[in-house]
Write a structure and sequence with these properties.
Radius of gyration: 36 Å
InterPro entries: Transposase_8
Largest sheet: none
Shape: extended
Biased composition (Low complexity): 7-21, 33-47
Helix content: 55-70%
Strand content: under 5%
Oligomer: single chain
Number of helices: 5
Mean pLDDT: 76
Number of strands: 0
Region (Disordered): 1-61, 97-117
Structural class: mainly alpha
Organism: Aminobacter carboxidus
GO molecular function, one term: DNA binding
Low-confidence stretches: none
């Protein structure tokens, strides 16, 4: 009995219970949704726009300008960075990169670290890094020995 119902539909004949007379419409393609982009990112994508690079002097001037505005207390960080023409992220990156140089300038009289030579002289750079590493290990060892002696005195082990 099951063969009787299937045979006419397979042969292409229309029967009462089959949908051979109805034709299905083709499926629609799904619309692709692009993620929303902030308005500030749009100009950077234009073909003619280039990324702005600031010199060290310009960075220092803009950081000083922002710090003065913040010290006055009249503006927020976002407003100060916007008026200086940079983003908040750039401000934090510049500030982070500037701070080690200020600390080194404050020390001043201490032994200056040897600058690594760039430009392909890897062996000389490696030697300098090893010398710096040995110096730092020596300083750490001295500090730990002094701390150990002090703890032994406090505990009365000597």
């Amino acid at each position: 009995m099951a063969d009787d119902n299937i045979a006419p539909a397979a042969a292409g004949e229309a029967s009462e219970g089959t949908a051979a007379t109805k034709q299905k419409s083709p499926r629609r393609k799904k619309a692709t949704v692009e993620p929303a982009r902030p308005a500030a990112a749009a100009p950077a994508k234009t073909p003619g726009a280039k990324r702005k690079t600031h010199s060290d002097r310009e960075k220092a001037e803009k950081l000083d300008l922002i710090s003065k505005k913040l010290a006055q207390g009249k503006t927020t960080l976002q407003e100060a960075t916007k008026s200086a023409g940079i983003s908040v992220q750039s401000y934090y990156q510049w500030k982070r990169n500037e701070q080690p140089s200020e600390k080194q300038a404050a020390k001043g009289s201490e032994k200056k670290p040897v600058k690594a030579v760039s430009g392909g002289n890897d062996l000389a750079e490696l030697v300098q890094l090893e010398a710096e590493n040995n110096r730092l290990r020596g300083l750490l060892a001295e500090k730990l020995k002094a701390e150990n002696v002090e703890l032994r005195k406090r505990l009365g082990l000597d």
